[in-house]
Design a protein that fits this description.
Number of strands: 34
Number of helices: 18
Helix content: 25-40%
InterPro entries: EF-4, EFG_III/V, EFG_V-like, EFTu-like_2, G_TR_CS, GUFP, LepA_C_sf, LepA_CTD
Family: Belongs to the TRAFAC class translation factor GTPase superfamily. Classic translation factor GTPase family. LepA subfamily.
Bound molecules: guanosine-5'-triphosphate
Function: Promotes chloroplast protein synthesis. May act as a fidelity factor of the translation reaction, by catalyzing a one-codon backward translocation of tRNAs on improperly translocated ribosomes.
Structural class: alpha+beta
Protein name: Translation factor GUF1 homolog, chloroplastic
Binding site for GTP: 92-99, 157-161, 211-214
C-alpha cells in the first residue's frame, strides 16, 4: 500500500510516512461516519456493528469475551478502587513503535486478541494507516493483575502530528503518567521532545522505554544517555523492550502500576470532566471522550459544557474496552465516553470542561483554547453543479471537526467555492482527501496561504488569507506575516545542507547545540509561508531521512511582500495569484510561466502567459497556435482507437477550467500550485 503522499502532505508531515505495512491504530475512526464508495462500505458495517453492540446492551460475542468470559457483569467495567487506577499515554516519534506497543499491551492484558485487533481495529483508519500517523485519539481500558490486586489501566492515545498539538496537550492533561518510547536503534527525535515538554508541563510521571532492542543495531545504553542529556530524565531504570517480539511488556505493565501515581480522589467535589476527544456519530450524535477529574457523572444527568455553554442530558455513558461498553456511573479518576444527542462537535470541543447543570463547578479546567486556523486555501468543484454538494460535505465534516473553518468564495475564474481554514498543512491535506474520497468530489485547490496582516493607510489592520483580496498597494502601508520557530535535530554530517535549506527559506539562524558528539540541534526562525512548501520533503532528502523537526508559532513580523499575478491570454487567473517576498518574485514568476506553458494544451490561437506585479509584466512565455485536429493523426486508421481518443478528449474537457477563451486542464492548476509551493 503505497502511501499517497504528495509533496504537500509530506511537507508538513513532520512525520510523513513511509509505512507501507504499517500496523495499527486500534481505534475506530472518528473520521469515518460519512461513508461512501467501496472503500468505506466496510467501515459502515464495522461501525454499525459497534453501534449495535453498544446500544443493544447485551454481552457482545467478540473474541475478547473468550478471555473475559469469567469476568462477569460489573467486572467487565473493571471497577476498582481509585488507588488501583492508572491513566497513561504513550509519547513516541513516528515509527518508533507506539502502535505496536499499544497493541501488545492490549493483547497481554487480554483486552483484545490479535485476530480481533487486525480485523476490527486496524481496518478502521485507512487514511491514517496510509499516512502512517495517528490523526485522532481514543482510549482503551485494560485489566491487569499485579501482586494479586486487579488494576485498571487506561491508555489514552495521542495524535503524533504537530497540527494536533493542542489535542495532544489535552490528552496528556487527562493522564498521570506517560511512556516515553524511543527506538533504541535511532534516538531522540524533535517531535518526541516537543511532546515530552508538554508532558513535563502537565506534571506527568515519565517512564522511559527503549524499544526495538531485538534489532542488531540497537544501542539502548547510548540512547539512554541521549535521553538523559537532552531531556534531563533519569534513565537508570529505563525499560528495554521489543514491542514486536513481546520482550519487556510485563516490565512495562508493572512499571505503570508502580511508578505512575493513581488519580486524586476528588469524587465529592462538583463534577469536572476534561474532554480529550470527540467525534460525530450519525446515529447517536457526538460521542465525547473524557476523563473525570472531580466528582461523578451518572447516566441521565443533565450536563453542562462550560466553554460552549450548552447543556444536554447524558443519555448514555460508558467505558472504552476499547469498544464502548455502557456503565451507570463514572467517578473521579475514570476515563469514559458519553452520548447526549449533541449535534456538532463544536458544542463539545476538546479541552472543554463538563460539569453538572444543577451543580456547576466554580472554575473550568485550565488549558482550553479555541482552534485558530493557520493555513487557508480555496476549494472549488471542477464541476460547477457540485457546489451544493461541496457545501454539504464541508458541513458534515465540520460536525466532526471543530477546527475546520470555511466561508463561500467566488472567483471569476473558478466560479463558486469555499475559502477554508485549517490547523496546518496535514489537516488541510486530510480534509481535501476526504472530500475527494468520501464525497466523490473533484476539486481544484488554490495554493495554501497563511493569514497576512495588512496595515492600511487609513489606520485599519485587515487579515488577509486570500491573495486575490489583498488591498491594493496604494491602500496599504505594510504587510506582516506569521513566523515560526523550527528546531531541527540532525546527525552532524547534514548540518550544512540543512542550514542552507533554512537560509533559502528566509530563515534567521538562532542557535546550534551539539546534543551528543554526533548530533546537533539547530534552531531557526522563519516565515510560516516558507514551510507551506516542500520544506519537510527537503529536510528529509537533504539529510537522507535522518533529520527530524518540530515547529511552533512565534507571532507576526513585517516583511516586504508583494502580490504576484498570472495572466493567461490577457486574463488574470486569480487562483494562481500568490503573495511572495519581493526578492523571490522574479524566480517564482519565471518558473510559473514556464510550467504553465508546458501544461496548457496548445490552442487554435497564440496564447501569452505572463507573470505580473501590478501592471508590470516580470516574466512572459507564449504558447504557439495549432491547427490540426487531434483525430487527423489516426485518420483512416482503426476505429476503436479513434473512439478512445474522443472519449479521452471528452474526459479531459470535464476537468478543464475555461480561462477566457483558453481551456486550462486541472492538471495545470495542480502542477502550478505544487510548483508555487516548491519555489516560494
Ligand atoms: N524490530 C522491531 N521493529 C519494531 C518494534 N516495534 C515496532 N517495530 C516496527 O517499527 C515500525 C513502526 O512501528 P509502529 O508501531 O507502527 O510505530 P508508531 O510509532 O506507532 O507509528 P505511528 O502509529 O505511525 O505513529 C513497524 O514496522 C513495526 O513493525 C520492535 O520492537 N522491534
Amino acid at each position: 500500500m503505497a502511501a499517497k503522499i504528495n509533496s504537500l502532505a509530506a511537507l508538513v508531515s513532520l512525520q510523513a510516512s513511509h509505512h507501507h505495512h504499517h500496523s495499527t491504530p486500534f481505534y475506530f475512526s472518528p473520521f469515518s461516519p460519512h461513508l461512501s464508495t467501496t472503500l468505506t462500505s466496510r467501515r459502515r458495517s464495522l461501525r454499525s456493528a459497534v453501534v449495535a453492540r453498544s446500544t443493544a446492551g447485551t454481552q457482545p460475542k467478540a473474541p475478547s469475551d473468550v478471555d473475559l468470559a469469567n469476568v462477569a457483569g460489573q467486572d467487565r467495567l473493571l471497577k476498582v478502587p481509585i488507588s488501583n487506577i492508572r491513566n497513561f499515554c504513550i509519547i513516541a516519534h513516528i515509527d518508533h513503535g507506539k502502535s505496536t506497543l499499544a497493541d501488545k499491551l492490549l493483547q497481554m492484558t487480554g483486552t483484545v486478541q490479535k485476530r480481533e485487533m487486525k480485523e476490527q481495529f486496524l481496518d478502521n483508519m485507512d487514511l491514517e494507516r496510509e499516512r502512517g500517523i495517528t490523526i485522532k485519539l481514543q482510549a482503551a481500558r485494560m485489566r491487569y493483575v499485579f501482586e494479586n490486586e486487579p488494576y485498571c489501566l487506561n491508555l489514552i492515545d495521542t495524535p503524533g502530528h504537530v497540527d494536533f498539538s493542542y489535542e495532544v496537550s489535552r490528552s496528556l492533561a487527562a493522564c498521570e503518567g506517560a511512556l516515553l518510547v524511543v527506538d533504541a536503534s535511532q534516538g531522540v527525535e524533535a517531535q518526541t521532545l516537543a511532546n515530552v515538554y508538554l508532558a513535563l508541563e502537565n506534571n506527568l510521571e515519565i517512564i522511559p522505554v527503549l524499544n526495538k532492542i531485538d534489532l542488531p543495531g540497537a544501542e539502548p545504553v547510548r540512547v539512554s544517555q541521549e535521553i538523559e542529556e537532552i531531556v534531563g530524565l533519569d534513565c537508570s531504570n529505563a525499560i528495554h523492550c521489543s514491542a514486536k517480539e513481546g520482550i519487556g511488556i510485563t516490565e512495562i505493565l508493572n512499571a505503570i502500576v508502580k511508578r505512575i501515581p493513581p488519580p486524586c480522589d476528588t469524587a465529592e467535589r462538583p463534577l469536572r470532566a476534561l474532554i480529550f476527544d470527540s467525534y460525530y456519530d450519525p446515529y447517536r450524535g457526538v460521542i465525547v471522550y473524557f476523563r473525570v477529574i472531580d466528582g461523578t457523572v451518572k447516566k441521565g444527568d443533565r450536563i453542562y459544557f462550560m466553554a460552549s455553554k450548552k447543556d444536554y442530558f447524558a443519555d448514555e455513558i460508558g467505558v472504552l474496552s476499547p469498544n464502548q461498553l455502557q456503565a451507570d456511573e463514572l467517578y473521579a479518576g475514570e476515563v469514559g465516553y458519553l452520548a447526549a444527542s449533541i449535534r456538532s462537535v463544536a458544542d463539545a470541543r476538546v479541552g472543554d470542561t463538563i460539569t453538572h447543570y444543577g451543580r456547576k463547578a466554580e472554575n473550568s479546567l485550565p488549558g482550553y483554547e479555541e482552534a485558530t486556523p493557520m493555513v487557508f486555501c480555496g476549494l472549488f468543484p471542477v464541476d460547477a453543479d457540485k457546489f451544493p454538494d461541496l457545501r454539504d460535505a464541508l458541513e458534515k465534516l465540520q460536525l466532526n471537526d471543530a477546527a475546520l473553518k470555511f466561508e463561500p468564495e467566488t472567483s471569476s475564474a473558478m466560479g463558486f467555492g469555499f475559502r477554508c481554514g485549517f490547523l496546518g498543512l496535514l489537516h488541510m491535506e486530510i480534509i481535501q482527501e476526504r472530500l475527494e474520497r468520501e464525497y466523490n468530489l473533484t476539486l481544484i485547490t488554490t495554493a495554501p496561504s497563511v493569514v497576512y496582516r495588512v496595515n492600511c493607510i487609513n489606520g485599519d489592520t485587515v487579515e488577509c488569507s486570500n491573495p486575490s483580496l489583498l488591498p491594493e498597494p496604494g491602500k496599504r502601508t505594510s504587510i506582516e506575516e506569521p513566523y515560526v520557530k523550527i528546531e531541527m535535530l540532525t546527525p552532524k554530517d547534514y548540518i550544512g545542507p540543512l542550514m542552507e535549506l533554512a537560509q533559502d527559506r528566509r530563515g534567521e539562524f538562532k542557535e546550534m547545540k551539539y546534543i551528543t558528539e554526533n548530533r546537533a540541534s539547530i534552531t531557526y526562525e522563519l516565515p510560516l509561508a516558507e514551510m507551506v512548501g516542500d520544506f519537510f520533503d527537503q529536510l528529509k532528502s537533504r539529510s537522507k531521512g535522518y533529520a527530524s523537526m518540530e515547529y511552533s508559532f512565534l507571532g507576526y513580523k513585517e516583511s516586504e511582500l508583494i502580490k504576484l499575478d498570472i495572466q493567461i491570454n490577457g486574463e488574470r487567473v486569480e487562483p494562481l495569484a500568490t503573495i511572495v517576498h519581493k526578492d523571490k518574485a522574479y524566480a517564482v514568476g519565471r518558473a510559473l510561466t514556464q510550467k504553465l506553458k508546458e501544461l496548457i494544451p496548445r490552442q487554435m490561437f497564440k496564447v501569452p502567459i505572463q507573470a505580473c506585479i501590478g501592471a508590470k509584466v516580470i516574466a512572459s512565455e507564449s504558447l504557439s497556435a495549432i491547427r490540426k485536429d487531434v483525430l487527423s493523426k489516426c485518420y483512416g486508421g482503426d476505429i476503436t482507437r479513434k473512439k478512445k481518443l474522443l472519449k479521452k478528449q471528452a474526459e479531459g474537457k470535464k476537468r478543464m477550467k475555461a480561462i477566457g477563451k483558453v481551456d486550462v486542464p486541472q492538471e495545470a492548476f495542480m502542477a502550478v500550485l505544487k510548483l508555487e509551493k516548491e519555489v516560494l
